[in-house]
Amino acid sequence: MNQPVIEVKNLVKRFGHFTANDHLTFSVEKGEIFGFLGANGAGKTTAMRILCGLSSPTEGEAMVAGFNVKEQPEEVKRRIGYMSQKFSLFEDLTIWENMRFYSAIYGLSAKVFKERATRLLRDLTLYEERNRLVSTISLGWKQKLAFSVAILHEPSIVFLDEPTGGVDPITRRQFWEMIYEASSRGITVFVTTHYMDEAEYCHRVSIMVDGRIDALDTPGGLKKQFNAANMNDVFLALTR
Amino acid sequence: MIKIQQVSKSFEKVQAVRNVSLDIEDGELFGVIGPDGAGKTTLFRMVNSLLVPDEGHISLWGIDPVKNYRHVRTMIGYMPGKFSLYYDLTIEENLKFFATVFGTTVEENYHLIEGIYKQIEPFKDRPAGKLSGGMKQKLALSCALIHKPKLLVLDEPTTGVDAVSRKEFWEMLQELRRKHITILVSTPYMDEAEMCDRVALMQKGEVLACDKPEVLTSQFNRPLLGIKTADIYRCLLDLRHYPQTESVFPFGEYLHYTDQRTGDVKPHIEAFLKEKGHQAIQVIDVEPDIEDRFMQLMGNNSVNPD
Predict the structure, then answer these.
(1) Which residues contact B193 (CB under 8 A, 6 or more apart)?
(2) Nearest by CB to B302, which of A171, A180, A195?
(3) How many angstroms separate the most distant Cα atoms in chain A?
(4) Chain A partners of B38 at a C-beta cutoff of 8 Å?
(5) B189 CB within 8 Å of a chain A CB
(6) In tens digits, what is the pLDDT along chain B, a chain of 306 residues?
């Protein structure tokens, strides 16, 4: 793990007089699970949109999967996966149709699609259920399925925006095991969450306050630095 | 007090609430904790008269929310999960509107909301639609309180809210509790259980357990170990294949582990992990928390996709 797949230098994003991202500088390595934390309104979503090639920085530079987000956003989009709790799957399509749809978006061949979708659904024990409408499965299963879909095209990086909100504690842990598994295969995971115990699962964590990154280290390092028992106390020390 | 007796409610094929019975005491801060789909919202909507139970009976201080729904609605302050104030009215206009609808004035009950409203008062001319999440939450709570309800029903007030705002919100609830308002609150965050006097753990329409949070936690009756190594994911996978493992889950910094054997099993586990080539092995005793207990109660409930 020493090959950066995200490199951000002095990234600034302004909306009129409001500075949403104020000189962000950080890098994320291949296969790393990177927790991107911050209070509501700290600028996380803005930064994430820039890294996904959906918004352009006002100043500074961001390289994602080897491409400049400002100059080659389409190249960036091809190499990343994205999932959030708010938008993940089409409810009125079946499990299989959702996978088929996303594989077509990313230009996978029919053969590759079939192989990967079969393997992913077998891993999830959802293969026998593949012709069910997504609207008929529980939230926890939707979230696990949405994660599988987000990495179907084997992206360099997958961005997860509060992926586990509202799911039960067992499913939440199964979801994190999927994250661990993807990371062990070399997929970089960039994740936001409001569950502070989940921050502990990350290799490194950054905490944003008012548009700036005020802390960045391993969970152990942050706890030491702030003399805190857990990540919740680190977060409160920084943002309160 | 509030009595919920053997209440069930279905929507088409989904049984949202199954035979739930709960008693909530006067002045209690009562939490209903469970994931999405547990039935929390349906239960609350039956308590506050917005839904009629298929079976069972509810009474609020002797008043039936089915027969006397008009009366019940004046007794309750309700904060739904989705922000439901008027976006195009300002903070002040929203508050005045709710006071007027309930036949009172902001001045009359200002003492109840003062601590909360003061924090948003500097922005009182701002439309509600332009507020941050934390400010919306404070306004919604003020509007739910302005008619001095006997019961406050809060449906997932802290979902999607950051850790700081969550902490502030619970501090506000503690203060309201001191003013003897009965509070019924739901949340998917297990760590919020300890802020409540009593909690009901819900899953798939059923109450798995109901008691004081510390009692629920103490009902986790297995010795619990915290385990970590330099490669925690591989450690998890290895322990899954360890024949003596009863349960193993990621849990913050450590894996939480229970063993099928009794006695001090730590040396055996350390030896096993060493043999598997793990480094920086730590095996320690840990205190269970309510989430451990919830998972124990869930058992294998989460394995099917319905």
Answers:
(1) B31, B33, B199, B213, B216, B290
(2) A171
(3) 54
(4) 168
(5) yes
(6) 999 999 999 998 889 999 999 999 999 999 999 998 899 999 999 999 999 999 999 999 999 999 999 999 999 999 998 888 999 999 999 999 999 999 999 999 999 999 899 999 999 999 999 988 888 989 999 999 999 999 999 999 988 788 888 888 999 999 999 999 999 999 999 989 999 999 999 999 999 999 999 999 999 989 999 999 999 999 999 999 999 999 999 998 899 999 999 999 999 999 999 999 999 999 999 999 999 999 999 875 545 666
Q: Of the candidates B99, B98, B91, which has an alpha carbon nearest to the alpha carbon of residue B117?
A: B91
Please give the model's pTM, rounded to 2 decimal places. 0.89
Q: Residue written as tokens 């002797």?
A: B62
Nearest to A39 among B164, B232, B303 (CB): B164
Six-digit token string for A17: 């007089």
A177 CB within 8 Å of a chain B CB: yes
Parallel/antiparallel/unpaired status of strands B2-11 and B14-24: antiparallel
A233 touches chain B (CB under 8 A): no
Query: What does the DSSP 8-state code read for residue B220?
Result: -
CB distance from A166 to chain B under 8 Å? yes
Give the chain B residue whose CA is nearest to the CA of A178: B233
N residues, chain A:
240
Which DSSP string do the residues of A43-108 spell out, in sequence order? Answer: SHHHHHHHHTTSS--SEEEEEETTEETTT-HHHHHHTEEEEESSS---TTSBHHHHHHHHHHHTT-
Select from B166, B295, B305 the Cβ nearest to the Cβ of A141: B305
Is the ipTM here above 0.90? Answer: no
* Cα A133 to Cα A128: distance, rounded to the nearest angstrom: 13
Q: Out of A170, A177, A230, whose CB is closest to B295?
A: A170
The label of the residue with tokens 């909306």 reads: A15
What distance in Å separates residue A204's CA from the closest CA in chain B? 12
- A61's tokens: 């530079």
